[in-house]
Amino acid sequence: MHEPAIPHLTQSDPEIAELVQAEAKRQHDKIRLIASENYVSAAVLEATGSVLTNKYSEGYAGKRYYEGQQVIDQVETLAIERAKAVFGVEHANVQPYSGSPANLAVYMALASPGDTIMGMALPAGGHLTHGWSVSATGKWFNSVQYGVRKDTGRVDLDEVRELALAERPKLIFCGGTAIPRTIDFEGFAAIAREVEAVLVADIAHIAGLVAGGAHPSPVGHAEIISTTTHKTLRGPRGAMLMSDAAHAKALDKAVFPGLQGGPHNHTTAAIAVALHEAAQPSFRDYAAGIVANAKALAEALLERGFDLVSGGTDNHLILIDLTGKGVAGKPAAKALDRAGIELNYNTVPFDPRKPFDPSGVRLGTAAITTRGLTPSHMPKLAEWIDLAIQAGAAEDEQAIDRIAAEVRELLTAYPMPGYTLT
């Protein structure tokens, strides 16, 4: 059952309560490999569901537009100070509702419509808000996009530099949503300095790895850092902007009143809890475990003939091109879901297929590491992935059901925060 218990919800709205319980069980019973998901602690869940959701708090600590902020100011200040300490930054804003609004605040703070901005192309692993054509950032700004080399699947900084010198962007974004390799923040910073651009590091996927010392930090290289607070950081669904002191005022003004009204105080508190957890020595072990699991899983998949974009991984994320397996990403992802293995279909670089029916799948190891799985489990997981994809292609639902049962049996030995077996 869901933990913490939900007796009041069960009494007042049993239909929703039943769905909450069903989702908790689903999360418990599946190997969750979606790279942007995780399990938060019971403490984060409690903060998220607290009475702090009742309070409206437009403005910042000490400068609010509503009275009764004596406690909320302390909560937000604590979250800010913890963010500054964990990441070693001069300034932090914990109010953005999610990653996309956080990135939009960067544009609002430092660019005007029509300005040239530069980011990684979505099909290469970038994010919609880094200037992709269907996003407001691609419509409102003159967006130039860099990608990866076809032969390596990696960013070529010489090509990035040539593009930057030709286009002279005002902002350069590095980071993205499907990048399995270490981001060279120092290299990007050198390019940004040369063209007098502001470097923005979007570390939404790797924030927990940075906090835990398992990935190089952008601090000292990027003037602005944007991140979500879930994913590898293992917090609630929220976001933060961090920066040097020179950009603090502009960013704060862009978040409020530029884009948002009152912050979500229950989320702010949960962010503070997650940052407190990230400051513990055990979190460094967790971050290292994420990477160790990803590397072990990548090696096991390679041994089974899977084609991994860039040939492997340095972080939590693996991107698989299934072209060589004779199956597309979408049917593979759906077969895996039925087999108790949850991931997402995903475009791969230079993908000839359409985005809603792409050639690849994306997976990450943050959630399974939270559950306690180790590199010793990864060969079996790779076997299940391989067999489930084959079974899906052959329409062998009995084989898929067998794998799902084996997955459930394994996971009973690995507790899930937010759920207790009854």
UniProtKB/TrEMBL annotation:
<dbReference type="GO" id="GO:0035999">
    <property type="term" value="P:tetrahydrofolate interconversion"/>
</dbReference>
<dbReference type="InterPro" id="IPR015424">
    <property type="entry name" value="PyrdxlP-dep_Trfase"/>
</dbReference>
<dbReference type="InterPro" id="IPR019798">
    <property type="entry name" value="Ser_HO-MeTrfase_PLP_BS"/>
</dbReference>
<keyword id="KW-0663">Pyridoxal phosphate</keyword>
<dbReference type="GO" id="GO:0019264">
    <property type="term" value="P:glycine biosynthetic process from serine"/>
</dbReference>
<keyword id="KW-0028">Amino-acid biosynthesis</keyword>
<feature type="domain" description="Serine hydroxymethyltransferase-like">
    <location>
        <begin position="9"/>
        <end position="385"/>
    </location>
</feature>
<keyword id="KW-0489">Methyltransferase</keyword>
<feature type="binding site">
    <location>
        <position position="122"/>
    </location>
    <ligand>
        <name>(6S)-5,6,7,8-tetrahydrofolate</name>
    </ligand>
</feature>
<dbReference type="GO" id="GO:0032259">
    <property type="term" value="P:methylation"/>
</dbReference>
<feature type="site" description="Plays an important role in substrate specificity">
    <location>
        <position position="230"/>
    </location>
</feature>
<dbReference type="GO" id="GO:0008168">
    <property type="term" value="F:methyltransferase activity"/>
</dbReference>
<keyword id="KW-0554">One-carbon metabolism</keyword>
<dbReference type="GO" id="GO:0005829">
    <property type="term" value="C:cytosol"/>
</dbReference>
<dbReference type="Pfam" id="PF00464">
    <property type="entry name" value="SHMT"/>
</dbReference>
<keyword id="KW-0808">Transferase</keyword>
<dbReference type="GO" id="GO:0042803">
    <property type="term" value="F:protein homodimerization activity"/>
</dbReference>
<feature type="modified residue" description="N6-(pyridoxal phosphate)lysine">
    <location>
        <position position="231"/>
    </location>
</feature>
<dbReference type="InterPro" id="IPR015421">
    <property type="entry name" value="PyrdxlP-dep_Trfase_major"/>
</dbReference>
<dbReference type="InterPro" id="IPR001085">
    <property type="entry name" value="Ser_HO-MeTrfase"/>
</dbReference>
<dbReference type="InterPro" id="IPR049943">
    <property type="entry name" value="Ser_HO-MeTrfase-like"/>
</dbReference>
<keyword id="KW-0963">Cytoplasm</keyword>
<dbReference type="InterPro" id="IPR039429">
    <property type="entry name" value="SHMT-like_dom"/>
</dbReference>
<comment type="pathway">
    <text>One-carbon metabolism; tetrahydrofolate interconversion.</text>
</comment>
<protein>
    <recommendedName>
        <fullName>Serine hydroxymethyltransferase</fullName>
        <ecNumber>2.1.2.1</ecNumber>
    </recommendedName>
</protein>
<dbReference type="GO" id="GO:0030170">
    <property type="term" value="F:pyridoxal phosphate binding"/>
</dbReference>
<comment type="pathway">
    <text>Amino-acid biosynthesis; glycine biosynthesis; glycine from L-serine: step 1/1.</text>
</comment>
<comment type="function">
    <text>Catalyzes the reversible interconversion of serine and glycine with tetrahydrofolate (THF) serving as the one-carbon carrier. This reaction serves as the major source of one-carbon groups required for the biosynthesis of purines, thymidylate, methionine, and other important biomolecules. Also exhibits THF-independent aldolase activity toward beta-hydroxyamino acids, producing glycine and aldehydes, via a retro-aldol mechanism. Thus, is able to catalyze the cleavage of L-allo-threonine.</text>
</comment>
<comment type="subunit">
    <text>Homodimer.</text>
</comment>
<comment type="similarity">
    <text>Belongs to the SHMT family.</text>
</comment>
<dbReference type="InterPro" id="IPR015422">
    <property type="entry name" value="PyrdxlP-dep_Trfase_small"/>
</dbReference>
<dbReference type="GO" id="GO:0004372">
    <property type="term" value="F:glycine hydroxymethyltransferase activity"/>
</dbReference>
<feature type="binding site">
    <location>
        <begin position="126"/>
        <end position="128"/>
    </location>
    <ligand>
        <name>(6S)-5,6,7,8-tetrahydrofolate</name>
    </ligand>
</feature>
